Amino acid sequence: MVVEIHVPMLPTPALPDGSYPFPWIEEVEDFLSGLEDQGGVEVFDEAEEDGDAYVFFLTGAGEGDLLAAASRVATLPGVPAGTVAVLSNDEAEQFGLGRRVPLPLPAP
Fold it and tell me: What domain of life is recorded for the organism (predicted)?
């Protein structure tokens, strides 16, 4: 199982002139790297831009744990609203073909 985390490619508002408009990308990559170091999930592949979204990939755990990690990504500071998870697998021919789950997940 692979969970794709689709984050809308929206620039962070109110940044100083000349700043990189998507600082949240590095924040998400650092966060996912930390989760991987803790052994909770694995980063499946390099994140990349796909149309109007930036897509991160997680695997190495069950659906609940992967969705919980994806939900935490959606609540990181600066991550644009509208982030979704897509449940997929490593043989999918393209992004976004699995079941879509709006993020963040509702509190239990």
Answer: Bacteria
